Amino acid sequence: MGEELKVSAFAMSIAAQAQNLNNVFVNGRYVTAAEERSVINKVAHADFQVYGISDGKIKGGHPEEGAFPTVSAMQRLQRLQADMAEENRIDKDKIWDYLVETNRSMKEYRTGIEAEDGGASMAALFLHGNRGLAVHLGDSRIYVIRGGRMLQITEDHLQATDLYKYGVITQKQAEVHKRDSRLTAFIGMDDIYDAEDTVFSKFFVFYPDDLFIICNDGITDYISNEELERLIRGMRDASADEVAQTLMGKIGAVSGDDKTLIVLHIDDAPGSAAPQRGTSAMPQRENFEREAPQDETQKPVSQTTQLTGITTGIIEEEERRRAQDPDDPDYNMDEDDEEGPSLVDKILGNPKRLAIILGGILLLIILIALISKLGGGKKNNKVPKDNSSESSISEEISEDISDSSVISDSSESSVVTPDQSDSSDSSTEDSSTPAGTDESSDELDDSSDSSEESSAGPTETGTYTVEAGDTLYGIIVDHYGSYDEAILEYLQEHYDIDPGNLQIGQEITLPTLEEMGLE
């Protein structure tokens, strides 16, 4: 490895319509005007470098104002890079201040032009020496590729992602509903401090020949992570521009959205040698997951960790500056790491998370109560074996049942005469059909009919008025008792319902399963 960071970057942004609402930032350069197609190809030699994209728009106002969110974010990012380059280090506090000020400016501008809605998602990669930090808001993503293996560093700020994390839907369902899901964090949101704990990744180490991809949802909505990894694996020796143009060509055939991406190839970087092939050389999720917030008044708690994966050690900001021999091939980097807050602290320190958990517990209690109530009507007609209860129950049994039980007892004798055999047969026949059997069987028939009726779903067409926080997924589950993709498709096709754009007060017609042909 050399003593200087060298990165080859290729950025491309293509508009779906005449005006491109996206933007790219390539180590100080960005697109100053909304162009239909933008390309930046650059090789940078500098110890401190910054790359990023922004994807957004203004709904309402004048058409030329639609690109303001992304241009504004790139302008401020350029000033941030210049400021941190003077200090020659990655400063998370300054990055957070940049996000807060950009968010405030976006809200003021949106109010000034009386736009209905507006904002931008963004993803940026800060590189210094051989250390990196990923920052993002929204659903733009950052990937790292090493040795043909790929890892997604960022986590989408989407409602579908939250539902998956809390176990409401599966990961496959989250990917299906990704395009219709609303952003939970973006530049221009009401309170950016709600997303403070989810903005930064951990610091990580990168090596020569590592590949980074920064892209917007116009790319990721049309290719799965598995397909993307296979594509990159087949282009192991390709340059950054070859990877970018191949990926853009594949997505361009199916995507109708604005498409923006940056491909970075680490040509050289200072520090220790890259790990050899094998498990330890592969990107590991724990090396990139965001850091838990820490109390600044507390000193870090020492904890030895064995660092593997793409970092061969996760780098904490100032602790990584301890004296080490960067040329030692056996450099292992066992470092003191900070112990994050406990699970209870994380829950109590996040009101939104606490509310979701309490709501889930309340819903579980209600479900248990309903199940208990429904189960209470299905009494077992068997006579208990408890001796204390037999005396009370026997008083209510009819006289012929008592007689038959006596005969039944006598039939247990070791010597049985023909007359006794006849009488025991008849008594056994009588005891097998007690007087209450007809009524109990009728009750069972009634209960089975009711259970069949409940499992068939609602018998009449209903309507539902959308309230704040409602999702079409939750409405379907509440009305029909379970989620079925066919119901969602039927509502979209016949009633023109957009799952990702429900309006408060909107009336939704909920037909029966029979009407939809799903019974």
Could you give the topology of this structure?
Blueprint: E1 6-14, E2 22-26, E3 29-30, E4 37-45, E5 48-59, H1 68-87, H2 92-112, E6 117-128, E7 131-137, E8 141-146, E9 149-152, H3 159-165, H4 171-176, E10 204-205, E11 211-215, H5 217-220, H6 225-233, H7 240-252, E12 259-268, E13 304-305, E14 335-336, H8 343-348, H9 351-376, H10 387-394, H11 399-410, H12 418-431, H13 437-455, E15 462-465, H14 472-480, H15 485-495, E16 507-510
Antiparallel strand pairs: 1-4, 1-12, 2-3, 2-5, 5-6, 6-7, 7-10, 8-9, 8-11, 11-12, 13-14, 15-16
Report the mean per-residue pLDDT as an integer.
74
Number of strands: 16
* Largest β sheet strand count, sense and barrel closure: 6 strands, antiparallel
Helical content stands at 25-40%
Number of helices: 15
Uncertain runs are: 291-340, 378-455
Rg from Cα: 33 Å
Strand content: 15-25%
- Strand order of the main beta sheet, please? 4-1-12-11-8-9
In whole angstroms, the N-to-C terminal distance is 66 Å
Q: Which structural class best describes the helix and strand composition? A: alpha+beta
Task: Describe this entry's structure for a reader.
Helices cover 36% and strands 18% of the residues. By secondary structure, the protein is an alpha+beta fold. Strand 2 (22-26) and strand 3 form a beta hairpin. Helix 1 runs antiparallel to helix 2. The two termini are 66 Å apart.
